[in-house]
## 1
Amino acid sequence: MAGVFEVEVDGVEHDHGLEQHNEPNQFDVSKLSPEEKWRVEHAKMHAKHKGHEAMHAEMVLILIVTLVVAQLVLVQWKQRHPKSYNLVTLFQMWVVPLYFTTKLHWWRFLSTWFIFSVITAYISFRATRKPLACTTPRLVYKWFLLLYKISYAIGIFGYSVVMFTLFGINLIFRIKPEDAMDFGVSLLFYGLYYGVLGRDFAEMCADFMASTVGYYSASGMPTKHLSDNICAVCGQPILVDVSEEGIIENTYRLSCNHVFHEFCIRGWCIVGKKQMCPYCKEKVDLKRMFSNPWERPHVMYGQLLDWLRYLVAWQPVIIGFVQGINYVLGLE
């Protein structure tokens, strides 16, 4: 270990218990190890904030009050104007991480964000065209369902890496704990972020396509009468009977007796977040639809992504607002 040092900041002396004592601030910081540099910064932070307990309590109070008020405002906004809330949330989900990652020069994330944005922009463009091409609904749901499954797998793998690191399994492979934890947290972030963003884009596209096809209307009656052999999600004929086993996909019948392509109704319910019949709006029983226990985690994962949207989209905005209040009031 390098020579022992003391740090004196604003008249407060911090002894870090090394073997020999030099004069305060009489050492070359560049020669210190990363751990010793962290100790120096830690000592400076304690010295800087010493005696500011009342100010810190005021800042915590401002944070708590702002979080409560912001939550109430967001809930009321979502209930009264869901369309504008969803659009603003989607925009923030897309842009806020871009700002921070650009500022921090996280090029790996920026590369994946650019690829995702290009493909999703093309898919969204196809979904919003009128008249709607007959192949577009299947293309949209296949892309977002694929993205959903990939994000799910990456998120689970990242979470597993984090748990293995906590239990010390990384040491078996001679991997440093900080490296393993960084890798796991990064994968977890990628999976959750693209999972949330993909579901929001899918919901927007589902609304546009279903309204264009004409068998679904967010408010009011559908503009078309649904035949028995037509899928109300994509508007294409159903070629496989409900009782038959399809080569590529099966046909699924809801409790309201309306039939759909399996991929269409799964995309509509899981990815598009529409837990109702696209035609008559009867509530879909997801437990009955996903009777296979291996498929149920996809439903729970979707609910988790909905909850995380608040943390990714609105939490940075609220924290920035709190910092603005503290700056105006002269609190540091």
Note: DSSP finds nine helices and four strands in the chain.
## 2
Amino acid sequence: MGNSGSAVKVCADHQGGINWLSLSPDGQRLLTGSEDGTARLWSTADSQCHGHFQGHESYITFCHLENEAAFTCSADHTIRKWDVVTGQCLAIYRGHTSIVNRILVAKDYLFSGSYDRTARCWSVDKEKQIQEFRGHRNCVLTLAHYSSKDVLEEEEEEEEEKVSRDLLVTGSTDCTVKVWWVSSGRCYQTLLGHTGAVLCLILDAPNRELFSGSTDYTIRTWNIVTGEQLKVFKEHQGSIICLELVNRHLYSGSADRTVKCWLVDTGERIQTYKAHKHSVSTLKYHAGILFTGSGDACARAFNSRSGVLQKIFRGHKFIINCIQIHNELLYTASHDGTLRIWDIRGICKRNKRLSRLFNNKVGCMVQQENGNHETVELM
């Protein structure tokens, strides 16, 4: 049984639930997007609020933070770009006709997915729509982006698409995943197989693989060049809500109150993390520890290898929607409107010690079996 933890700090500035939490690439700032229609910028150095972005006419569904700019999308059908220093709204991207529920920033592109059944591509700097991706029969819920040069040999690329090699992947409540050429808006692949809404996507471009999680209780692996379905992971008893890929280990969080760890190369399920009393809404791997957030308002830390629950973080009143980790601090954002900060130095230190003991023990067993003095270091 894990030990309970108390928060180092509780940030309660929002007047509504926090729907998303984003960490800047340099780790200096955090951005929260809320049901109160505003976003707030936090410093990871002093945990203080240093920016309050106001202007949306409805709740913020999702947010994304770069080092110099913040992006928010809203139920008011728009996306906004903000200056992180001045708090000024730099751009408003208009065009969607329903709730914008996801955004993704890649290079000079801003991508968005909406309940209007479309995804769109915008120029980050010019406040202009570049492309519209139309073809889904229902809401676009999740996005991923890659460049064809990361996955295709030059002779495999279609001639007309060699100028712009960017591709967008969309998952929808119409049960399909679609891959689109960004330059033309043309659908390159439609991946068929799911029988429920596609809630999450994760991409492994170097290995040409895409992972999709669905309300049909399955995770599916696809070859993103051929569109071939490679594997189906079937052991969950509820919708797949979130995915994380680390060192060819796939972690899946589900409405069945568990997280499972799978070996991507074989499809074998090697661990199940239990103890949640509600759906697993978010997860993050850090230094051999799997951190989860749940609808039961608790965050948890598990030893990723053994599956043992090491700590429970209690204090939130409603579902934890998102977690981030920086400098051995755990940040949890909840529908109760608070951002809570937890010190995880002790658990990280203890986990490293346990990992060393585990490796030493296994190394000794291998020595005995082999009759030699080789040691084995496990991932």
Note: The radius of gyration is 21 Å.
